[in-house]
Fold this sequence. Notes:
Layout: H1 4-7, H2 24-28, E1 36-37, E2 44-45, E3 67-71, E4 86-89, E5 104-106, E6 114-118, E7 123-129, E8 136-138, E9 145-146, E10 149-150, E11 156-163, E12 169-176, H3 179-184, E13 194-196, E14 201-203, H4 205-208, E15 212-216, E16 229-231
Parallel strand pairs: 7-14, 8-13
Antiparallel strand pairs: 1-2, 3-4, 3-15, 5-16, 6-7, 6-11, 8-14, 9-10, 11-12, 15-16
Amino acid sequence: MNSAATLRSNGILGVGPFSADCGVSCVRAAVTPWYYACPASGCTASMQPLAQQVSNPVAGFATDNNGVIIDLPALADSGASGLTGSMIFGIGTQANNALGSATVLRANSGTGYVKTTTSDGTVYSLSYLDTGSNALYFNSPTMTRCGFWYCPSSPVSLGATIAGIDGVGAPVTFAVASSTTLLATGNWAFSNLAGYNGRAFGWGLPFFFGRRVFTAIASQATPAGSGPFFAF
């Protein structure tokens, strides 16, 4: 997806837990593959001041600028060709964006990571919630893989706990179905599609279906304290 044609859009505006997409890391050092300087001799990784980094558009709003809520309906096991949900701006600033009884998971202030512990006792200290990932990504030594994707012979039910840096956690149950079966449906949205990641646990878009998930931007005040945090 290295061109507008293959991406099928002109770009992606991130709305994660930071106001800048690389932050102080790219101010201090040339971090591959974030920013590049391209003189006539060719492109090389480059440091980038905060003011010139791609910014989270929500953080630039005059109001309702402390985070977002993604509110998506649940899906059938076979997925869906399309669906309609909501992105709601602000957390605790309007009647429709109150935290209510959601559990707040405070993220690392430098990386945005939280921690995931799966039911088999595996701990992923690098764990993130990301609508921009099209599947759940983690390492299962027992589940059958078809290339990059998991393809168990029958759906597998799993459990995990996502916890913040203060130890407060929330339980999650999820399923993984055969990628071969799912992708053959011709659908585009799945709540049970998973792939391999040997280093981190990525709670991609499937996690968000059937949930109301809050993402608070770092250093922005909310009724639950300043971000960064996730809540659901």
